[in-house]
Amino acid sequence: MTMELGRDKTALMVIDMQNSYCRDGGRMAKLGFPYERLAAAEPGCKRMVAAARQAGVPVIYTQYVYQSDFKDGGFIVNEIMPGLKEVGLCEVGTWDAEILESLTPEPGDMVVQKNRPSAFYSTQLESVLAAMKIRSLVFCGVTTNMCVETSVRDASQRDFRCFVVSDAVGEVEDDRAEVALTTMGFFFARVLTGDEVLDSWKVELSNVA
Fold this sequence. Notes:
There is one protein chain. By secondary structure, this protein is an alpha/beta fold. It has one domain (10-64, 100-201): Isochorismatase-like (Rossmann fold), CATH 3.40.50. The protein has helices at 19-22, 27-30, 35-39, 42-55, 74-80, 83-87, 125-131, 144-156, 174-188, 194-201, and strands at residues 10-15, 59-64, 110-114, 136-142, 161-170, 190-192. The protein has a six-stranded parallel beta sheet with strand order 3-2-1-4-5-6, with helices on both faces. 44% of the residues are buried.
């Protein structure tokens, strides 16, 4: 039986669409990563947010944020990729950590701050979703192989129905993007295009890029 997407008990998850990852002056670019590949997810995310608002589907943003001393970074920052601390990636209170202006949350939207790839790790997300009686999650954002996939895996293992919008996610390498979408689609989620989501939600957004 194919898992079907509807509006009821559904929320849109916009993962880490921040200046750090998607803008030329962001710290990811300073580390040498091709921010343009992540910024490519912006039009798709804008389309999904507009569709969700038209369909009455709640919009939830995640925001990767580190404290200024990076003591909350753990071994990921201290041992695996110390460059994150050296460049001040997603430091709290900075432009780098801000959500893209084009995707600025509106009153009533939820913003989940996190300091790990998963939107569920040490956050209030699961309890908020339970209070909202949400059972299905639609994911867009960056990066496909890291924060999107990690959040999808954690959501799936909590028995949320997960859907990933293939043309509204971004990754720094084609191989990683392909593997991530294949893996999520194999066991953790259903991978859809933006058009398929709009069709499921019965909305038309011809004027949205």
